[in-house]
Every structure is written in structure tokens, then in C-alpha cells.
Specification:
Chain lengths: 113, 111
């Protein structure tokens, strides 16, 4: 079975400060890891993914994430947060031979001006 | 945006009535999924399809059925809706083991 944990329900940061959203995962086999963002009353938008290769992956809107195999983590980061980054963020995992994607419970990010 | 259309976008119904949600894609992707989103639970997989007439259950499939008679359409049916099925339902598509693309969601309220 595969699962994802997002230990923080909410993250609050000031605009211009670094933003980190935490994610840990559990899978049998090599993980495929994803981050999605959801704005109010919208569907999920893909931000970035780790499949293989460089542990630091860069995605949309200035976000990046670092895959850490020993800590089974895939934390999302942005060096300088914007008010417009306020949204609900989901981490997700699947394996190479499973087309089902498992999601964490989500983290609400609020960036204050 | 990926060509995914969900209908209806909003529906209010009564307990015990049947409900069908439709997902239509124009991307010709092989895989289609139905998820439900509830506060504190994130997204949970209901059913998915890996080809025409090929479907399988997800983690919360009880009370739901699906059908896929064409590549572009994936239907989710609640045979007899219950209040616990009040949720926001998302359809998603993918062509490979990489990212899923999501529709805008269908908000269902069962009274």
C-alpha cells in the first residue's frame, strides 16, 4: 500500500519569506512524487514531479521540491512567497507499476501581505 | 488546460435517488479516474479506468459504479445516493504513470 502524510494542516508565512510545505511518503518500490495546487472552487493544477534523476526538481510558479530517499520526504519550497501563492497544496505518490495516485490530506497555505 | 469537462458542475438531490456524473475528455488519454474530495481527507480514489470497458475499484468504491463505453467518456453512478456521498467529485485523466490532469469538479449535495 502507498500513502502520503502532510503533517501540517496550515502554513502561514509573510510575503517575501521562504515557504516550505512538508510531505512524507510510504511506498513499496520506487516512488513517483507529485505536487498539486488547488485554488478555491477550482480543480487541481499540477506543479511539479519527481520521477527519476536529480533530487531537486523545479516546477511552475517558482516552486521547487527536493526528493530525499533516506527520509522518504518530498518537501515543496519557494524562496520568496507571494500573496497569490495562498491556496491548498497536495502531495501525491504512485509507483511505476501502479496507475493509481494517492494523495495527502492537503496543506492550506496563507501568505500575508 | 487539459480538455476535461465534468457535468453537472452542481447538483442537489435527495437521499435514495440515482445520480450520474459525467466526465468527458478530448485528449484521447487512456486512463481516467474519479476522486472525491472531503475536508481532512484530501482526495480519495473511487474508481478508475485503464481502457474502454476496463475499470477497477479504488479505496472508497462502495456505493458507486462506473462505466466507460468510449475512450472519451467516464461515468460515475450513485445508484441510491446517501448523505455521506455529499462531496466534491473530480475526474482526472492521464496517458502514463506521470501526472494526472483534473477537471473542475462536480459539487454534489445529498439532502
Amino acid at each position: 500500500a502507498q500513502s502520503v502524510a502532510q503533517p501540517e494542516d496550515q502554513v502561514n508565512v509573510a510575503e517575501g519569506n521562504p515557504l516550505t510545505v512538508k510531505c512524507t511518503y510510504s511506498v513499496s518500490g520506487n516512488p513517483y512524487l507529485f505536487w498539486y495546487v488547488q485554488y478555491p472552487n477550482r480543480g487541481l493544477q499540477f506543479l511539479l514531479k519527481y520521477i527519476t534523476g536529480d533530487n531537486l526538481v523545479k516546477g511552475s510558479y517558482g516552486f521547487e521540491a527536493e526528493f530525499n530517499k533516506s527520509q522518504t520526504s518530498f518537501h515543496l519550497k519557494k524562496p520568496s512567497a507571494l500573496v497569490s501563492d495562498s491556496a491548498l497544496y497536495f502531495c501525491a505518490v504512485r509507483t511505476g507499476d501502479d496507475y493509481k495516485l494517492s494523495f495527502g490530506a492537503g496543506t492550506t497555505v496563507t501568505v500575508r501581505a | 488546460d487539459a480538455g476535461i469537462t465534468q457535468s453537472p458542475r452542481h447538483k442537489v438531490t435527495e437521499t435514495g435517488t440515482p445520480v450520474t456524473l459525467r466526465c468527458h475528455q478530448t485528449e484521447n488519454h487512456r486512463y481516467m479516474y474519479w476522486y472525491r474530495q472531503d475536508p481532512g481527507h484530501g482526495l480519495r480514489l473511487i474508481h478508475y479506468s485503464y481502457g474502454v470497458k476496463d475499470t477497477d475499484k479504488g479505496e472508497v468504491s462502495d456505493g458507486y459504479s462506473v462505466s466507460r463505453s468510449k475512450t472519451e467518456d467516464f461515468l460515475l453512478t450513485l445508484e441510491s445516493a446517501t448523505s455521506s456521498q455529499t462531496s466534491v467529485y473530480f475526474c482526472a485523466i492521464s496517458e502514463s504513470v506521470e501526472e494526472l490532469f483534473f477537471g473542475e469538479g462536480s459539487r454534489l449535495t445529498v439532502l
